[in-house]
């Protein structure tokens, strides 16, 4: 009897081990290993923004890390070359052109020196950062995009079309801009009845998905201005949701249950009645920010206020969302930056790099897959999205689509020379109303328009000069305040 029981247990154990072996064999990311860098490789003494907004506060590319910071007299963010680690001087130059706190920043995927910012001052600004970083504070953006009537909390560049930028504000409107001309070409102002929590482009930028305070997840065709699919009460809890597109066209969401448990779910936009998968995680109240790697199908979840990063692999097999592991640390995160694939070190089998914001510093965290061989691991690094745009803005607005142009990382990625962002503003008075604009332009007789435009330009120049001098004064005062604070600190010590 006893021997029979032992035999049955042995068979069960063997089966269990076999299943485990099968899981390990199927997933090469089972043993992804996260490690924070040493203190001297962190960015120290940074006053990370305290504004109550659920964005990541940090944006990274292969050249720079940008961090939204506390600033008196307006909004500002730091832009540091990646190698500028250690203590950051309080007088280090900032990007400080906004008159209200900066809420979101996003690097252009097709130009590593161009960054967009959205602010409480209701504007979106696009900035060109010098090749070697800032030596003086930057107060003049390349272009100011004005069209929102309330604060702008979301900015997101189009993944494949050059100079196409999306912004979403607390006026519940989504505007898609042609940055090259400074024009708002699409205005989706009647699709959301409540605050938009986030917006995500799909792989080729033909659709967007949104999560909103009305608990709906929407899939929208922005050029047709149509809602393609929507799900009411994707997550039943009242706290903020997030929705992102995956490479296969499915939508991944994070949110809260009615009992305030954090959830993640996977949806097929063609049938959003029921989720493909729904998992409950824990009862923490921080919003889960998802970061997605389309090359490896891994999603990293970083909770605001959490001290951990959980990661999952998305596959075609049930349960579809497979838990891999958790990277844990002691300090809670205020925000998080995520490096594009082309900025990673392929020689160290690095598959992700995060930039974790603490209260006073930014700490890189490196995720690697341990491998014994020093050779290039082509299974970890399929060809990835490169920095070249597949379409021009005009082509996309006319209806064309294109997948990202891929590059190989076999010999590592060397950042090339970026061309300057040039904005050629069209004379709106001469242009015909586009089909996508919902407002009718008032036709003005051309002669009077020409006469008035000369006077207006002169006035505009005067106003711009005055604004610039005020902004310069604010930046100088900021630097003076920080120097005085340093002196006080020394005296107090």
Structure report:
The chain is an alpha+beta fold. Helix content is 16%, strand content 34%. It contains three helices and 32 strands. Strands 1, 2, 6, 28, 29 and 30 form a six-stranded mixed sheet that branches. Strands 3-4-5-7 form a four-stranded antiparallel sheet, with no helix packed on it. The protein has a four-stranded antiparallel sheet with strand order 8-9-10-11, with no helix packed on it. The radius of gyration is 24 Å and the shape is globular. 40% of the residues are buried. Mean pLDDT is 86; it is low at 5-25 and 427-452.
| Mean of pLDDT | 86
Termini separation comes to: 77 Å
Q: Main beta sheet: strand number and arrangement? A: 6 strands, mixed
CATH topology: Methylamine Dehydrogenase, Chain H
Which stretches are poorly predicted, pLDDT < 50 over at least 5 residues?
5-25, 427-452
Q: Percent range for helical residues?
A: 10-25%
What would the principal axes of the Cα set say about the shape? globular
CATH architecture: 7 Propeller
Indicate the structural class.
Answer: alpha+beta
Record the SSE blueprint.
Layout: H1 2-26, E1 33-36, E2 43-44, E3 58-60, E4 64-69, E5 75-81, E6 86-87, E7 95-98, E8 102-107, E9 114-119, E10 123-128, E11 143-146, E12 152-157, E13 164-169, E14 174-178, E15 183-188, E16 196-201, E17 208-212, E18 217-221, E19 226-231, E20 242-245, E21 251-256, E22 262-267, E23 277-280, E24 288-293, E25 298-303, E26 308-314, E27 321-328, E28 335-338, E29 350-357, E30 361-368, E31 384-385, H2 393-397, E32 406-407, H3 446-492
Parallel strand pairs: 2-6
Antiparallel strand pairs: 1-30, 2-30, 3-4, 4-5, 5-7, 8-9, 9-10, 10-11, 12-13, 13-14, 14-15, 16-17, 17-18, 18-19, 20-21, 21-22, 22-23, 24-25, 25-26, 26-27, 28-29, 29-30, 31-32
């Amino acid at each position: 009897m006893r021997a029979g029981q032992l035999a049955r247990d042995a068979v069960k154990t063997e089966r269990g081990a076999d299943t485990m072996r099968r899981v390990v064999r199927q997933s090469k990311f089972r043993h992804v290993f996260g490690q924070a860098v040493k203190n001297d490789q962190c960015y120290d003494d940074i006053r990370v923004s305290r504004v109550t907004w659920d964005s990541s506060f940090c944006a990274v590319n292969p050249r720079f890390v940008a961090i939204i910071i506390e600033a008196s007299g307006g909004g500002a963010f730091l832009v540091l070359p990646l190698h500028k680690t250690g203590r950051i001087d309080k007088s280090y130059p900032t990007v400080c052109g906004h008159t209200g706190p900066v809420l979101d920043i996003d690097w252009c995927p097709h130009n590593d020196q161009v960054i967009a910012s959205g602010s409480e001052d209701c504007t979106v600004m696009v900035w060109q950062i010098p090749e070697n970083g800032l030596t003086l504070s930057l107060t003049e953006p390349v272009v100011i995009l004005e069209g929102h009537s309330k604060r702008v909390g979301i900015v997101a560049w189009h993944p494949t079309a050059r100079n196409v930028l999306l912004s979403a504000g607390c006026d519940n409107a989504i505007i898609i801009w042609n940055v090259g001309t400074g024009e708002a070409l699409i205005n989706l102002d009647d699709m959301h009845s409540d605050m938009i929590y986030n917006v995500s482009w799909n792989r080729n930028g033909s659709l967007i998905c949104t999560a909103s305070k009305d608990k709906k997840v929407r899939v929208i065709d922005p050029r047709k201005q149509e809602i393609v699919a929507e799900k009411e009460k994707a997550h039943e809890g009242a706290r903020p949701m997030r929705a992102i597109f995956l490479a296969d066209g499915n939508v991944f969401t994070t949110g809260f249950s009615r009992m305030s448990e954090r959830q993640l779910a996977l949806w097929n936009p063609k049938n959003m009645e029921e989720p493909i998968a729904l998992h409950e995680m824990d009862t923490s109240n921080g919003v889960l920010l998802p970061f997605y790697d389309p090359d490896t199908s891994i999603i990293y979840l970083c909770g605001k206020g959490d001290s951990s990063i959980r990661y999952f692999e998305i596959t075609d097999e049930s349960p579809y969302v497979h838990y891999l592991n958790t990277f844990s640390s002691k300090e809670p995160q205020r925000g998080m930056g995520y490096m594009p694939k082309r900025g990673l070190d392929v020689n160290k089998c690095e598959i992700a790099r995060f930039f974790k914001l603490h209260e006073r510093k930014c700490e890189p965290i490196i995720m690697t897959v341990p491998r014994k061989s020093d050779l290039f691991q082509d299974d970890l690094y399929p060809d990835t999205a490169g920095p070249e745009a597949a379409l021009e803005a005009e082509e996309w607005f006319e209806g064309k689509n294109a997948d990202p142009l891929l590059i190989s990382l076999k010999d590592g990625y060397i950042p090339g020379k970026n061309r300057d962002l040039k904005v050629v503003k069209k004379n709106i008075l001469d242009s015909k109303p586009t089909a996508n604009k919902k407002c009718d332009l008032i036709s003005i007789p051309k002669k009077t328009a020409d006469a008035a435009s000369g006077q207006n330009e002169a006035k505009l120049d005067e106003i711009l000069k005055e604004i610039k001098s005020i902004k310069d004064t604010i930046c100088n005062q900021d630097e003076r305040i920080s120097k005085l604070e340093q002196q006080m600190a020394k005296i107090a010590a």
